[in-house]
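G., before I forget:
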Amino acid sequence: MKLSIKGMGVVGGFGCGTDTLLSALSSGQCAPQNVSVKTSQGSLDMAVFCAETSRLEEFVNKKALRRADHFSKMALLGSHLALQDAGKLEEDHSRMGIIVATGYGATRTTYAFLDSFILDGDTFSSPTCFSHSVHNAAVASVSELLNITGPGLTVSQFEMSVASALLTARCWLEEGSVDSVLFGAIDEYCDVLGYCWHRYFGNRATAPHSMDPLNFDLQSAIPGEGAAFFVLSDDDRGGSRYGFIKDIRLGRMDQCIEAVDRGTTFFLGADGHKECGARYRRFLSGHFRTECYTPLYGSLPIGPAFDIAIAALSIKNGKIFPSPRGKNEGQGTGMGSICCVKVGDREELGMVTLEA
Amino acid sequence: MSPGAVAITGMGCVCAAGNNLPECMESLFRGERNLGVPMRIVSDQATTYPVFEVADDLASLETRNTPDISRTGRFALKVAFEAIGDAGLDREFLRSKRVGVCMGTTVGCVMNNGDFYRAYLKGQDPDMADITRFLRSNPAASVAREFDLTGPCQTIVNACSSGTDAIRIGALWIKSGICDIVLTGGADELSHVACNGFASLMITDSSPCKPFDRDRKGLNLGEGAAMLILESEGVRRMRSKEARTFVLGSSASCDAYHLTAPHPDGRGLRRALKEGIVSSGAEVKDIAFVNAHGTGTQDNDRVESRILHEVLPGVPFLSTKGYTGHTLGAAGAIEAVFTVACLEQGRIPKSAGFSSPDPQLPASPAGSEMEIRGSVAVSDSLAFGGHNGVLVFGTGGDPT
């Protein structure tokens, strides 16, 4: 079954909305912010692609957001933008399902909950922080505010989260339990994550201000955060301006690549991590055209969702945008299928293929 | 047999009731409730909340491809070994098929190591081993890595319905032809974070929990895991394997009402129950019993009793959380294997902790062990976030 992309909503280091993502694609530019990371040697500056959610107030009353954390706000903003884009914001959502993929969940609130009892004692544990720290809090907030009463699901599979969760979205549509799925992916930056980057990557974590993801000898990853939401349906009447998700594969690299048609363009999820970047090397063999857009949104487990958004924008605009870090080797210039690829730490592969 | 039925060919379970599924079932029918003061969690709460803790430290678990992983991950592996053995499968056969893993959890995906974070707050440089362990302890990935499985891998984090939702998705993967075999279930360990969280919400009982009872005061937390082996008809016939029973149908819904409280009219649960039964092809008269979510909290039991009475009037139901505690992301899976085992045995145990009917509830659970009539059973879960999940199991009509 092909999934028709009816609408999209994105927020990330590039800004908010598909227009800002399109601008970043056209210019090839996106500047990270400097954030302070607390370490045992004092504070360090680290570049981070941060997401800003103030546009959410265009859709949701401030009062309704008083307890929403950054993670849920990104989810709500992405959801509203996607449904608005699909013309389904005001529709009945009783036959809509919602799925969110996330690598780490609501980490800021998770640590805020720990603060509440580490600093003040177990008796003072914050019930609000606890209930908002559960991974499915974002789905709960979105379903409540948009009255989505079909099935709800949150998936956490690190780098494979997006491909894995999409597989289930397709199953729901095949099963007929829903007419459409609001599919989203969210990850957020937090202080502890920044500290972990500092510890794992040392000075390499704080030095770069631009990513060079296809230089596999260089650790150039910059953490990112954001959300990408899609309204998916199996209804292909009237075509789809963003194209269709025609295939979703998870498995060993060899198995997955064998199934790819010549003429496919790969969007590589290489995100500047030296250790795993080299796993993408075989895609640069020259048989396929390859592009890599991670320098526009950063390194985060749900990065493939942004690649899917970029693929959909490419289909809508009838062109493949050049990679922010310059031209890549490879054959093909036409608009065939676009395959968004992410390699996991077990060298498993998640592949999502779109076509016009 | 329902055309969409998916065969269950193996099961495994570990929880406070026992170290494997046969032990658990014997314990349930003996009426044992193995709860006590937490042994692995130190708390300065003014009240001590008893828990259902697994005694086994899992040190004897013999793995081939697994590095140091969390207790949740090891729970998942333990039940995987049991279920794979029960199904008569081995590593080599599994590697030759499209085998997926779909697991539910809550604690298993949360980056909340207290020791690490305390040291970080003090400005020290804590050992990164805790974070590295977290990164390699994803329950579904842990099982896939140990058995070298190459199919889809998915960890569901839908709070307390995670296990139920994982089994539903595993069955969908078989029905859609994505997988030949799916290892599916749920796993969760007791954690300081969850203990404090539920205490802060004032929904934990300082005495043994009493689901659906007039004097219920809340839940007891527990830990454990359960796994089911789901198998396509093609593979099952090829190896002439008899099914233990079938997943006949399933469904899920959102209340779209509140983060921690169920919809007062139970609209999401009503929908999930009705759709689940329709999807199974069964009729209400076929349903032998319901293994309810039955946490022992005021809100959950009130809504669940009302909806069970309305949708499945007269059908016996019970809660097994009085034997296991609320095992969060594992609960739906543990209750699923108990449901199947009870169907096989033709009886259900007493709903532990229930003694006094609540006049506010329209229906009460089984007050004693009872024989069941019918070949279909239902297990349901309600979760934070307003998620509802329903699984329908049935023994009838195995064509082999």
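Residues 6 and 247 of chain B are 5 Å apart (CA to CA). The domain at 6-238 of chain B is CATH 3.40.47.10 (Peroxisomal Thiolase; Chain A, domain 1).

More on Monday.
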